[in-house]
Amino acid sequence: MKILDSAPRQDFDTYIIRPDTQFCLREPGDSLTFIYESGYLPYSGAENLSNVFYSARSARILLPQFELTSENRRIAKKFDGQFTKERAAHFVPDEVFYDFCTAYFAQKHGTRAMPRERLTTILNSGLVTKTTIYRSLSRPVAYVLEVEDGTMSHYWFSFYDLAYAKQSLGLWLMLDALRDAKERGREHYYLGTVYGDKALYKTNFKPLQWWDGKGWSGDVSLLKELGRKD
């Protein structure tokens, strides 16, 4: 793992590079488990760029101790059994997938956040090991892209029908992924960054640790305080 002296280029409206952000290059022989354990996440902000990771205030769940909270159970009751689910190890994207995912990001984050070029870069990165497709009456309702290595998994991206947004489908998708990962015997499940008030929904899952720049902290109260100040 080689620390980079400067930030890579940024082609899409996705990242706010902070003063303390570091970038690293994954070298041959480097395990993803070690890179994630060191506080880094995959960088997908530049077209056709791979094996670059960035340090971030990210969160992970300790799966051996993971249990549903009352809020988790409330969300589970809303959607459990509502969709068919397929976990594909060799997912082949089609135009329905591209249109669905780019439209989701365009509505939620703007057209430059996830154009087709970025989505293609993500799929070609070699990091996505599982794609989960949720359907209702054969119609896609959501897609989840996951990274897996050793005993860890990372909930990298999700895309869903925004007609369900106010019903907290996004929270349920993450909950469902956590339950599946625990059943598969994973130890750590990475949830991505926690910047801003909108990302604090991730603190609904326990036990949660977050990267404070030096190590993994269990001080969730401090994480919430930092998120509200962003």
Automatic annotation (TrEMBL):
This is BioF2-like acetyltransferase domain-containing protein. Residues 126-197 form the BioF2-like acetyltransferase domain. SUPFAM superfamilies: Acyl-CoA N-acyltransferases (Nat).
